[in-house]
């Protein structure tokens, strides 16, 4: 992995599906929230969520109401849905396993004094609490979530830490991650990518690839 570590000093990570195997947990949460509206709505909700992983739940709530329920959602309704969603997923995510190889990879990067960040679509305080409970806070220089988009948060970190985009890499599993990287001129490495058969299934596969490539 020598070439990789010579090339990149700043590492950006999405959380769900990249650090922790938690995407299915959120799929079930969305289905549960909208089950009262019938199977057809639930099917559409699940399909949209899977096709748009990495977008904040607030954006999805608004989209579901407008497009599937044919009504506008109020801020109070968003707060109620957000509370129910958080109650459903929080404990499950704490129990969810890490993506294979990610802890070894984080340890290697941390030992190599790389600067690492979390950029998630999960609400800011919630993702901080989850990462603290998962006992991986020490790996990351900065942890950011919604309401800002991933693209906006990456841009903020680049400015704040005076990062040369050519020295940065983004690990993500969704089109929103890829977009956030590309819009900020950062190299993108797909991990457990949700839309196409590209990239690496997990970090064990990535580590093996890097070791072979630099052997």
């Amino acid at each position: 992995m020598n070439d990789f570590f010579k090339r990149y000093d700043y590492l950006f990570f999405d959380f769900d599906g990249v650090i922790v195997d938690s995407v299915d947990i959120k799929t079930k949460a969305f289905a549960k929230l909208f089950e009262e509206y019938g199977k057809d709505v639930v099917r559409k909700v699940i399909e949209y969520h899977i096709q748009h992983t990495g977008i904040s739940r607030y954006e999805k709530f608004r989209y579901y109401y407008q497009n599937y329920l044919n009504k506008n959602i109020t801020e109070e309704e968003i707060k109620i849905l957000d509370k129910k969603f958080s109650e459903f997923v929080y404990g499950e995510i704490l129990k969810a396993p890490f993506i294979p190889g990610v802890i070894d990879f984080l340890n290697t990067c941390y030992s190599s004094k790389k600067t690492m960040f979390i950029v998630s679509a999960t609400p800011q305080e919630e993702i901080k609490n989850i990462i603290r409970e998962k006992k991986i806070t020490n790996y990351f220089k900065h942890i950011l979530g919604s309401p800002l988009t991933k693209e906006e948060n990456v841009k903020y970190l680049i400015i704040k830490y005076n990062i040369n985009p050519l020295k940065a890499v983004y690990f993500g599993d969704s089109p929103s991650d890829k977009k956030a990287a590309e819009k900020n001129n950062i190299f993108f490495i797909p991990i457990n990518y949700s839309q196409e058969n590209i990239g690496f299934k997990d970090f064990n596969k990535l580590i093996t690839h890097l070791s072979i490539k630099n052997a």
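The mean pLDDT is 92. Residues 2-21+98-213 form a domain with the Rossmann fold fold (CATH 3.40.50.1000).
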